[in-house]
Design goal:
The chain is built from 19 helices and 21 strands. Strand 20, helix 19 and strand 21 form a beta-alpha-beta unit. It is α/β, with parallel strands linked by helices and 522 residues long.
Length: 522
């Protein structure tokens, strides 16, 4: 194609970096055709634009719904000038082939992510002409370059400034283009499945779409490859929405542990700190301020806390940062809503691990509103469930023993219950004075978890409370807690042996609460 005949069609919703890119195209000899808001934007940038309607000799109609769905547009995209039949059609109908098509689609996913969006508003953001042009150009990538993201502008302009776009780049862009329309269609399909399945939360067909954010060094172990994918529009209140301010790249295991720290820390309204090791909390506490919460959380199990991941639900201050930087600490990563400048300076310069610690900031720390889901891949399938974000209100508690908890015990029981649901089953957790003092996690029997929690707590179990994520199937777990000095317990209830457990509590003078809700975490 001669330089004089170079033409690009540009029609985009996302106008990031569009002005410099379009000027670059003009600089290497392109004429630009455009429509609607894109044409207006380019003209405001001082760029000459041919309106598509003047090229097609057909006006935009129906409020702009119909503007590019025209044979002279799609003929210019799909035409193969070196084939006789195509060349004849191009000449007969006055078609000028496009060398480049630059299209990104209406922001459908961003629209439906907004609170209170109506079905009608969502439907108006379903692009029709855009995907048609993208697919046409991608199909004809042997002749046409298709650009669907501002991230591609630099490499495209570099090749166009030289000998022209290589087939390798056009093929790469075509693959990205088909992926973009596939993701777009999946989002629309999932939206309709959601609004049509009013009686069933889970659609008959489920298609998920994620974008790769990073290649990770490896997975759980060095011989496993791994990558981090994120939702197309991740919530600001999520790990994908967090910003890393400092430190080495996050690993696969780091990301899983940071998520665990994040989920527990945001359970609390009071200043809270959590210490995570291998997805389980080895320490957690609330306090009058963040420093007090951290000291008590770290004291929960200082041995296990070495090389841990920390979560905070308040802006991390200098006082807390000084405590973190003490010589006996070693921290892998920290997530918090924010960091005071002085705290950042301390963490970046003072501790021995200063260059390596990953500091993540997630200003939107509050829990997400609405239903969200968890996915777990198994061989040949996918398990989907709602997140376990139930709050278990105190109004539903059942006080089932002769003695009811004291005010202090009740505060500790509520604290322990919030943390316990984040511990791997079978979960037993001892707490006292707003801090975790012993955890038994992931054991094959609840009695084993009770032994471990009591061992971890040591003398601190005297006057502590115990939380169990599921019912005690036998009285032995209560007997073990009583030997450790526990004075109150909280559990779901629902076992056929509930009465035996209640009797055991009465024998030991333990106040027992049934919540009515189980919180297994496998």
């Amino acid at each position: 194609m001669s330089r004089a005949a170079r033409r690009a069609l540009i029609s985009v919703s996302d106008k990031t970096d569009l002005g410099p890119f379009a000027k670059g195209l003009v600089g290497v000899g392109f004429e630009i055709l455009s429509t609607g808001g894109t044409a207006k934007f380019l003209k405001e940038q001082g760029i000459n634009v041919i309106d598509v309607s003047s090229y097609t000799e057909f006006p935009e109609i129906m409020g702009g719904r119909v503007k590019t769905l025209h044979p002279r547009v799609h003929g210019a995209i799909l035409g193969r000038p070196d084939l006789p039949d195509d060349a004849a059609a191009i000449a007969e109908h006055g078609i000028v082939p496009f060398e480049l098509v630059v299209v990104n689609l209406y922001p459908f996913e961003q629209t439906i992510a907004k609170e209170g969006v109506s079905v009608e508003e969502a439907i108006e953001q379903i692009d029709i002409g855009g995907p048609s042009m993208v697919r046409s150009a991608a199909k004809n990538h042997a002749y046409v370059g298709i650009v669907t993201s501002p991230d591609q502008y630099e490499s495209v302009l570099e090749e166009l400034s030289g000998e022209g776009m290589t087939l390798a780049l056009r093929r790469q862009l075509a693959g990205a283009a088909f992926e973009s329309t596939a993701c777009y269609d999946r989002a629309i399909s999932n939206y309709f499945a959601k609004i049509n399945n009013t009686e069933c939360e889970h659609p008959e067909q489920l298609t998920l779409s994620f974008n790769k954010q990073d290649d990770l060094r490896y997975g759980e172990n060095p011989h496993q490859t791994a990558a981090f994918y994120v939702e197309p529009t991740p919530s600001a209140a999520s790990i994908a929405g967090a910003e890393q301010l400092h430190g080495k790249a996050l690993s696969y295991n780091n990301l899983i542990d940071v998520e665990a720290a994040f989920e527990i820390a945001r359970e609390f309204e009071e200043p809270a700190a959590v210490v995570i090791k291998h997805t389980n909390p080895c320490g957690c506490a609330i306090g009058a301020d963040l420093a007090e919460a951290f000291v008590n959380a770290y004291a929960g199990d200082p041995v296990s806390a070495f090389g841990s991941i920390l979560g905070f639900n308040r802006t991390l201050d200098a006082k807390t940062a000084e405590l973190l930087a003490e010589p006996n600490r070693f921290v892998e990563a920290i997530i918090a809503p924010g960091y005071e400048e002085q705290a950042l300076e301390i963490l970046r310069t003072k501790p021995k691990w200063k260059n390596n610690v990953r500091l993540l900031q997630c200003p939107e720390f509050a829990d997400e509103q609405g239903t969200s889901y968890e996915y777990r891949k198994i061989s040949g399938g996918l398990l989907v469930q709602q997140r376990d974000d139930q709050s278990d209100p105190e109004s539903e508690y059942k006080f089932v023993t002769d003695r009811t908890p004291t005010d202090t015990e009740l505060r500790d029981l509520k604290f322990a219950w919030k943390v316990c649901k984040h511990v791997k089953s079978n979960a037993i957790l001892f707490a006292k004075n707003g801090m975790v003092v012993g955890v038994g996690a992931g054991q094959m029997s609840r009695l084993d978890s009770s032994f471990i929690a009591a061992h971890k707590a040591g003398e601190r179990s005297q006057g502590a409370v115990v939380a169990s994520d599921a019912f005690f199937p036998f009285r032995d777990g209560i007997d073990e807690a009583a030997k450790a000095g526990v004075t109150a317990a909280i559990q779901p209830g629902g076992s056929r042996n509930d009465q035996q457990v209640i009797e055991a509590c009465n024998e030991h003078g333990i106040a027992l609460i049934f919540t009515g809700h189980r919180h297994f975490k496998h």
